[in-house]
Amino acid sequence: MSEGRAGDAPRVHPTAHIEDGVRIGARTQVWDGVHVRAPASIGHDCIVGEKTYIAYGVTIGNWVKINAMVYIPTGVTIEDRVMIAAGVIFTNDRYPRAFDDAVEGLAPSGPTKDTIGSRVAEGATVGAGARIGPGVTVGSYAMVGMGAVVIADVPAHGLVVGNPARLRGWVCVCGRPLSSGTREVPPCGHCGRRLEPSDGPDGRTVRVP
User: How many CB atoms sit inside 10 A of residue 20's CB?
Assistant: First the structure.
């Protein structure tokens, strides 16, 4: 774990299991029953809720809030200021089997050539009980509704709900919905930001008036 001034040390509950080689940033709080496998990395000023599992090599940014009973397997990257609500499950294999077809016995639990990464970009929210498929990118400041099953990329600021998850509108940086449609997007009635088309990889940007 990371070192620094006493007041900056991460706070880890005594029942949490943090493997040797895990990096945890300053002021991060890790609650009871959490298991973090090496060489995962968690940034500063994060919260990891009780009974969450974070697998080999997962990278978590700064100011990230992960609620209770979240499952994050190998290959997942979570960027800064992301919220992962309770009971979210990420997946990393499109064709999972318990056995290894090439040899007798169980398939390995660690990363393999079939492991597929996913990414949750800066500022996004993944709602309670959502399921995130392998290879999915949740764009910056997007919002995934509770219980959604996400099997395709979510654009920046997109609001997706349902099974399978579909785009239902747009959300502001502040989290408020901007529109129930997908074309003309009015300015945010809460903070005044406006969503505009962009040539960037996510296709949307926010301008502050």
Answer: 7
Residue 45 corresponds to which tokens in the numbers above?
A: 């000023």
Per-residue model confidence (pLDDT) at position 76? 97
- pLDDT at residue 148 above 90? yes
Average pLDDT over residues 71-94: 97
* Pairing status of strand 166-171 against strand 177-179: antiparallel
DSSP summary character for residue 154? B
d(CA 160, CA 13): 34
Residue 170 or 21, more confident: 21
Q: Positive or negative CA dihedral for 61, 63, 64, 66?
A: positive
8 A C-beta contact, residue 145 and residue 104: no
The residues with which 159 forms a beta bridge, in sequence order, are 143, 169
Q: What is the pTM of this model?
A: 0.88
Whether a cis peptide bond, with omega within 30° of 0, leads into 39 is yes
Nearest to 1 by CA among 47, 62, 42, 57: 42
Nearest CA to 1 among 70, 19, 50? 19
Exposed/middle/buried for residue 194 (C-beta within 10 Å: 0-12, 13-18, 19+):
middle
Find the range with the poorest average confidence among 81-85, 100-104, 161-165, 195-199.
195-199
> 37 and 60 in contact (C-beta within 8 Å)?
no
Contacts of residue 209, defined as CB under 8 A and 6 or more positions apart, other chains included, come to 187, 192, 193, 194
